[in-house]
Each structure stands twice: as structure tokens, then as C-alpha cells.
Amino acid sequence: MSQVYIIVVNWNGWRDTIECLESVFRLEFRDFAVIVCDNASEDGSLGHIAAWARGELMAGCGNPDLACHSTPPVRKPIPYLDVSPADQLSVVSRQERLFLLQTGSNSGFAAGNNAGLRVALSDPNFEYAWLLNNDTVVHPKALSAMVNRMEARPDAGICGSKLLYYNRPEEVQALGGSSYNLWTARVHHLGAGPMSSQLPREESVEANMKYVVGASMLVRKFFLERVGLMNECYFLYFEEIDWATRARGKWRLVVSLDSVVFHKEGGSIGTVRQSALQPIKTEYYATRNRILFTRKFYPFALGTVLLAAAASCVQRIVRGHKANARAVFLGISSGFAGEEGAKTRL
């Protein structure tokens, strides 16, 4: 049994995952086990991750400035256990620190994490689950800093990290979470931009936080038991704000600015951006789920959200980005129709 279960969802991204794991197994906080949830990868991911755990495969590093977090390799072998979808795994009394879980299908971000959370919940003595994107590298103090913040705030349900861009570590992706405009269903990452020499107080960030960014979320066990698992209807995007909104008035959202996580952004879903233009998959799911979320929690704002989405579609047409405009239009149509889950063709 472990105090913290670290849940990492993988989909065709074993190279990112083993770099992430190299940094995870350097954490100063040692009372943890890792559950890698593989969403039916087609690139032999679990085999590669198992080879890494046996010491037969080296992790790469895409940014020499961050190599200290993933090299030299941690001591191998790392005891691991393969888990199939049919297994009813209980982690109680298990000695392994790494579980390789086959989810059986690619049902999205929330479903992959939920598979790991169900395994963690089989241990009655764990206290936290850390949902960590596979395309991240973590600072050695990242987990201990979040645990300390949660221990200091017993009313906190989820804690976020200071997210820095992997390829531009001097730039902030988000200070833990984001604000949200319910009239347009648009989000804004708090603190995004070049890192200031003086960070704001954590309490001032938390006052504007509507959800914790899903790349790094430390979740309290009691939160899981009382609020429930993540909503799987979205497939991709808006799962975190759905979770936080369901917990509104019951649990606080907090951030530890001493918890540093470097995020590649997009690697976890296979859509690393090569330009300022959003990938087609992102355009569709972000648009559709804005509407699904609004219909569920803020139906009175649906009209302005639809107008904002339509304006985005027109903007892409004017700029000549027809494929993106089509994805936004499909997202509007699907959201208005209440379609959920994965879209097979875009």
C-alpha cells in the first residue's frame, strides 16, 4: 500500500512516458506507487515501458536543460506488474511500485484516469492520487510540495502545480489552474506568460481558480469518495472543470507554487502543435465540450456560448483555415445535439 498513487495515462506515447517515469522515480517523496493506464496503444507502449523498468531501454530527453530530472537512469529493475482489463486488481499488500494497466480501449482522458483511480481505491489506506500527464517531467520536490499544501488545507480537494513549458521552462503555462468565463465558455490559464521574478501568493491565485489544469492534479481520497470519478462523456477537454464544478461549495481548489512540473503540452494526445493553429482534434472537442458543459451547468448562458463558438468558426473561414472551421462547426453541431464520447471521424 502507498500514501500516494501516481496515475499516468498513456496512448501511443511510451517515449514521453518513460522520460516522465524517470523523473517520477527521483521524487523526494517516496511513499508512492505508479499506475500507468494504457488506452489501447498501437505502438507497443506497454512492452517498451516494461523494458524500461527492467533496465533494457533508456529514456530520452528532448531538452538538455532538463536532463538532470531524467538522467542518469534510476536504478533498475523496478518491480512491476502487468494488469489486464479482466483482472480485478487489489493493490493492498502488493510490493510492486509500478503497475502497467491495460484499459482495453481508448475511451479518453477521463476514462483512462478513472481506470487507475479504481485500482487506487482498492487500497483503503491511501490518501491521495496524483493525476499526471505522461508528457511531463517533474521536479524532485513536486509531490512533497503538493502533499504539504493539502495537509495545510484539510478543506482542499484538488491541488495543482506550477506548470512550465518543457521547451521554454522560463515561461509559465499555468499557475495551477484557470479562470473561466461562463458567458463564452472560454478559459484563461492563470499566470500564463514569461515567469516573473516574484510570484503571487498562492491564496491570490486560488481566489481566481475555477479548476485545476489536468496535467498535474493531486486529488484527496475523500474528494473521490464524495464527488465521484471524472465524467467520461467529454473524451477530451473540460473533464477538469466538470469535476471542480461538481465539487463547488464542498471542496476548495489549491495550488502549490513550489511544485514544479514541466509540460510538453499536446504530447499526451498526439497533437503537439507545430504552429499557432490549433490541431483539428483540439478544435472539435474543445468546441463541442464547451457546449456540453454549458448545457449541463449554465444553460442560461447557452445562447452567448453558441454565438462565441460561431464567431470562432467565422474567424477561421476569414483566415482561410477551412479544415479548422469545419472542425469548429462540427463541434457546434455535436454539442447542440448532445453527442458525447469519441468522434470516430473528423
Walk me through the structure.
The protein has helices spanning 14-24, 45-54, 109-120, 142-152, 202-206, 221-227, 239-246, 280-297, 302-318, 322-337, and strands at residues 4-10, 32-38, 80-83, 98-102, 128-132, 136-138, 156-165, 171-175, 177-181, 186-189, 193-194, 211-212, 216-220, 252-263. With 346 residues, the protein is α/β, with parallel strands linked by helices. The model is unreliable at 270-276 (pLDDT under 50). It is built from 10 helices and 14 strands. Helix 8 packs antiparallel against helix 9 (302-318) and helix 9 packs antiparallel against helix 10. 33% of the residues lie in helices and 22% in strands. The strands form 2 sheets. Strands 1, 2, 3, 4, 5, 6, 7, 8, 11, 13 and 14 form an 11-stranded mixed β-sheet that branches. It has 2 domains: 4-269, Spore Coat Polysaccharide Biosynthesis Protein SpsA, Chain A; 280-337.
